[in-house]
Amino acid sequence: MNHYTPDSFSMTQSVGFSITKARNVLVTEMDAALKELDITSQQMGVLLSMRQGIATTPFELSKLLGIDTGLMTRMLDKLETKGLLARSRSVEDRRVVNLKLTKEGEAVAAQLPAIAPVVLNRRLKKFTKAEFEELRRLLNKFLAD
C-alpha cells in the first residue's frame, strides 16, 4: 500500500520528517544531559552496548547502532583518546578488532542508566502507558525489514 503520492506528498507532513525531527530533539536533549560526562548520545550508545555485552567489535557496533564504519572508527578513536575504551587485535583473526571498556569507561557507562531515562521520560510524559507501548510497537514495525 502506498501512503504517499507525488501530488499528496508534503515534506513537513511526512513520516520521515517527523522521525528525523524527533531524533534531533532527543539527541539535543540527551547530549545536554551527558555534557558533564563529556560524551555524546552516540557515544552513549557505544558505551552501553559494550557494557551490556551486546557488541564487542566495531562491526557489531556499526550494525547495531546503524552507524557507518567510517563514523564508527572516528567515534571509537575519540572514546579511546578519552581513555574510555581500549582496542586489541583478535588472536584468532588479526582482521578483527576487539573492544573493551577501561576502568574509566566502566565508570562512565555505569552512570548512563540513571541519565537516559530522565531525558526519555521527560519527552514521553504526555503519553499513557498504552500510547507508549503502541509507539514502541509502531516504531519496531517501521524498522522491521
UniProtKB/TrEMBL annotation:
Keywords: DNA-binding, Transcription, Transcription regulation. Residues 1-144 form the HTH marR-type domain. It comes from the Bacteria. GO terms for molecular function: DNA binding; DNA-binding transcription factor activity. Pfam families: MarR (PF01047). This is MarR family transcriptional regulator. It comes from Paraburkholderia ginsengisoli. The lineage of its organism: Bacteria, Pseudomonadati, Pseudomonadota, Betaproteobacteria, Burkholderiales.
